[in-house]
Each structure stands twice: as C-alpha cells, then as structure tokens.
Specification:
It is a single chain. 36% of the residues lie in helices and 24% in strands. By secondary structure, it is α/β, with parallel strands linked by helices. It has a single domain (5-298), classed as Spore Coat Polysaccharide Biosynthesis Protein SpsA, Chain A. Strands 8-11-9-10-12 form a 5-stranded mixed β-barrel. Strands 2-3 form a two-stranded antiparallel sheet. The longest helix is centred in the last third of the chain and has 13 residues, at 259-271. It is globular and about 60 Å long. The protein starts with a strand and ends with a helix. It binds uridine 5'-triphosphate (UTP).
Length: 299
C-alpha cells in the first residue's frame, strides 16, 4: 500500500543537550544555519510523503512557529529587495501539509507515536525521529524503507552495522531469513543489549515504516525501562502477527542527541554547503594550533 503520511516524534525533553534545550526544542537546534527538523521534513518530502504529523509538547511551540507564515519578515525582506531569502521563506512555509498533536508528558517514543493515531488513521505510515539524520541525496532513507514496504508489506525498520562494543547504545536486531542482501526478516528486537548478549551488530536507527496495527500493539504495551512505553516493545508484539523487516539503508547517518554528536553533525552539514564550506575549511586548517592550546588548558 502506498505511504502518504509520516510522523515525527519531537516531544522528548532533550536532557542530554541541556542547557541548549532548556527553552529551545532539540529539534530546532540548527545544523549550519537550518533547524534539524527542517532537514528531516525535507527527507520526508523527497521520499514522497504528502502529510506530516509532528508530535510536540508545551515547550516545543517554536517548531510550529518555524513552519508558519511570517508577514513581518516577508515585509522586511520585500523592502530590502532580498528575493533569494523571500523564496527561501516561501519554500519553508509551503513545503508540505503539516499537522501538530501534543504528547502531554514525555512517556516514551511508543507513547509519542500513539498520540498520532487519529491523524494517521488506518494506513501504513513513516516515522522519522526528530534528532536523527540520514544523508542520501539520490534515495532518501525513508524512501528506501517505503520501497521495501511497497514490495513486501509489513513493518520496516532502518538498520546499520555498528562496532560490536557500541551495540548497547541502540535497539538490536536478531536476524531471520534475508530477502535481499540488504533486507532481512526480523526474529526479535532487543533494546540496548549488553554486547555479549547482542545477537548481531545490526542497530536500529530513527527511520521506520509501520502498519496501523502498531497502535493496537502500543495500547497494550506496558511501560518498560524508565517507565516509558517503548516503540521497540510495540514492534516486538507485532512480530507474531506480521512480517517485520530490517533494511540496511544506503546513506550516512548522523545523530544530534548528545553534545559531541550535535557539534560534529553541525560541522558535517556546514561542510556539505558550497557557500559555507570554504570558510569552515579555512578555520579547520588552522585548528591544530587552537586545539593544542585548548588541550593544554585541560592539563
Ligand atoms: P530521545 O530519547 O533521543 O530524545 O528520543 P529525548 O528523550 O528528547 O532525549 P534525552 O535522552 O532526554 O536527551 C528520540 C526522539 O523521540 C522523541 C524525541 O523528541 C526525539 O526526537 N520523543 C522521545 C518523544 O517525542 N516523546 C518521548 O516521550 C520521548
């Protein structure tokens, strides 16, 4: 079945990047000069998604504001005759149909997805986590998962191989039969296992295609670790009833959820921009001097 809708859960507290996220949503932190969530929406649109549902909370109003019309800004840019920036505003404000729904308290990713139940309705949908980015200019990651769903049905999670000792940072896939070299049936999903207990080095990252059966599964899911309703537990409950695939996507994945990942991702995105890269490269070339001074200070 064709996928038209996608959900972006963006109601988490972002505690790992405090104090930046005390009043600013993590999903609004800029990578180079663009908010993280804008890149994620661009990926969804490039994948063919027509309607995006963003799950927000009381402290996340800036997300809704970012995609709303801004008459004062428009008037100022018109006065200046800045047509390039006017076009940019126009693009942001008319990118795609957006709906917003609230998660009253951050009770976990599974609970956030449940908040979108009525807006999604009875059809399969994509999920893109608000702090996870995947770069593939030819075939966006979500599109790759949508293709798997449209060919084989069922749910699809994006997976990537990680060094064995890092698997405890991710959801981990126990593999069943492979359908193609990159697409495998999932036998089981284990949330953040110890490396010695991990059945594979395949980690789940923040892109999914889910069938509407997930809502029923999540409604029956008891709170797991940290008192949160885990999406992984909901997907596991579906394993008995339908096929769930792990697809090893093509592309480079970046995270923005902790300070070092956020900084390195921002740098990587600046280096992809022809207008910003030369200045950033010039800075980096001289950085070894500054770096040794910064390290000296730590001693
Ligand atoms: P994370 O666990 O990475 O985000 O969830 P967090 O909870 O904001 O981060 P920390 O651990 O406190 O630093 C992944 C995505 O799911 C959303 C987050 O906003 C993030 O984009 N999320 C998470 C929700 O929407 N609701 C939740 O209850 C939890």
């Amino acid at each position: 079945m064709k996928i038209r809708k996608a959900v972006i859960p963006a109601a988490g507290l972002g505690t790992r990047v405090l104090p930046a996220t005390k009043a600013i949503p993590k999903e609004m932190l800029p990578l180079a000069d663009k908010p993280t969530i804008q890149y994620i929406i661009e990926e969804a649109v490039a994948s063919g998604i027509e309607h995006i549902i963003i799950v927000t909370s009381r402290t996340k109003r800036a997300i809704e504001d970012h995609f709303d019309e801004t008459p004062e800004l428009r008037a100022a840019l018109e006065r200046k005759g800045d047509h390039k920036k006017l076009e940019m505003l126009e693009r942001i404000e008319s990118m795609v149909q957006l709906s917003f729904t609230r998660q009253p308290t951050p009770r976990g990713l599974g609970h956030a997805i449940l908040m979108a139940k009525d807006l999604v309705g009875d059809e399969p949908f994509g999920v893109l986590l608000g702090d996870d980015l995947v770069v593939n200019d030819e075939r966006p990651c979500l599109r790759q998962l949508m293709d798997v769903h449209e060919t084989y049905g069922g749910c699809v999670v994006a997976a990537m191989r990680v060094p064995h000792e890092q698997i405890s940072l991710y959801g981990n896939v126990a593999l069943g039969k492979s359908i193609t070299p990159r697409t495998h049936r999932i036998r089981d999903l284990i949330e953040k296992p110890k490396p010695e207990a991990a059945p594979s080095d395949l980690a789940v990252i923040g892109r999914y295609v889910l069938t509407p059966d997930i809502f029923d599964a999540l409604e029956r899911t008891e709170p797991g670790s940290g008192g949160e309703i885990q999406l992984t537990d909901g997907i596991c409950a579906l394993l008995e009833r339908q096929q769930v695939f792990a697809h090893e996507f093509e592309g480079t994945r970046y995270d923005t959820g902790d300070p070092v990942s956020y900084l390195t991702t921002s740098l990587a995105f600046a280096l992809r921009r022809p207008d910003l890269a030369p200045g950033v490269i010039a800075f980096l070339k001289n950085l070894h001097l500054d770096e040794s001074r910064a390290l000296d200070k730590l001693d």
